[in-house]
Amino acid sequence: MTPPPERPVPPLSAAAPGHGRSVGGRRRGAGKRFLVVGDVLDGVLVQTSARTTGDHDPAAVIRHRPAGAAGAAATWLGWLGAEVDLVGRVGVDDVYRHERALEDAGVRPRIGYDSRTSTGAVVSVRSSVGRTSMSDGGASALLGADDVPLDLVQRADVVHLTGAAMLGSGGPERIAALVTLARSGGARVALDPSSVAVVRSIGGAAFLAAIAGVDVLMPGHDEALALTGASDVVDAAAELTRHVPLVLVTRGSEGVVIARPGRTPQPVPATPATVVDTLGAGDAFAAGFLRAWATDAVRVGAATREGTRVAARALGFVGGRPPV
């Protein structure tokens, strides 16, 4: 999911969610089980005053954090009190460290290891100009359907597939295999394209053909345009409903567009927030939405608003994961 632009918006009102697991009011997702499959990465997060190539910033703030779209979505689900499993892949030396970070957030990790390559990494550099990211999929780029235990799929109520490294490697065949596996247990399947670069490398038509059977698609603004070739996000959302029955196009501070077949696309505003870091906000949105949607699949608008509330919380933390 494309991250929103880093610009402050008004702070949360007094009626906004409180701290901890009270986000969204009454407990949602109770009795439901979630399976998240995708990227688990190491993050290097840089806040700098440098503006051009060659600048040296001796006072830059540099932090190392666990990262990755799947890790972020799963930990927000766990932070919200949901029952969640995660399947990922890291380098052989990093299994325990990533398992511990996930377990601390209430996630049951199934982390495979790879002795031939290292844990994937993402570098996020923020300055007054904006944010840019660079990523190396590493072990996450080798994650495929064969790595996902069938028993977890069969027990899940919702399977969420996400992560640029996983979805961008192996072409549409890998994506199709993951979707087929996710559907084999009767779960509802959600998919976040995660990166416009992934969509462009595979091709919009090939990507959409590979995700046949997905129940909800959560692209960012640019991903929706790349998937359809449309120039307007509302038109893109409507076009995507020809392939997926429920589409949620995230637009950062402009909120979300909900699209369903035969209906006029519905805008949902973003929950106001003070922006500290946009990394992982889309994954937090996915967690909040899926937790509510799993309980009541009819009230899509309410579930979307829940997602924007959780995303607003994520914008207040550095690194994309909840505080644990």
Topology (SSEs and partners):
Blueprint: E1 33-38, E2 41-47, E3 61-67, H1 69-79, E4 83-91, H2 95-104, E5 107-114, E6 121-127, E7 130-136, H3 150-155, E8 158-162, H4 164-168, H5 171-183, E9 188-192, H6 196-202, H7 204-210, E10 216-217, H8 221-228, H9 233-240, E11 246-250, E12 256-259, E13 266-268, H10 281-295, H11 300-314
Parallel strand pairs: 1-4, 1-8, 2-6, 4-5, 8-9, 9-10, 10-11
Antiparallel strand pairs: 2-3, 6-7, 11-12, 12-13
Unreliable runs: 2-26
> Rough shape?
globular
Give the termini separation. 24 Å
Strand arrangement in the largest pleated sheet: 5-4-1-8-9-10-11-12-13
| Helical residue percent band | 25-40%
Q: How much strand content do the residues show?
A: 15-25%
- Average pLDDT works out at 89
The count of DSSP E runs of length 2 or more, i.e. the number of strands, is 13
Structural class: alpha/beta
> Measured on Cα atoms, how large is the radius of gyration?
18 Å
What does it look like?
- By secondary structure, the chain is α/β, with parallel strands linked by helices.
- The protein is 32% helix and 23% strand.
- The chain has eleven helices and 13 strands.
- It has helices spanning 69-79, 95-104, 150-155, 164-168, 171-183, 196-202, 204-210, 221-228, 233-240, 281-295, 300-314, and strands at 33-38, 41-47, 61-67, 83-91, 107-114, 121-127, 130-136, 158-162, 188-192, 216-217, 246-250, 256-259, 266-268.
- The strands form two sheets. It has a nine-stranded mixed sheet, with helices on both faces. Strands 3-2-6-7 form a four-stranded mixed sheet.
- A hairpin with a 5-residue loop joins strand 11 (246-250) and strand 12 (256-259).
- Helix 5 runs parallel beside helix 7 (204-210).
- 52% of the residues are buried.
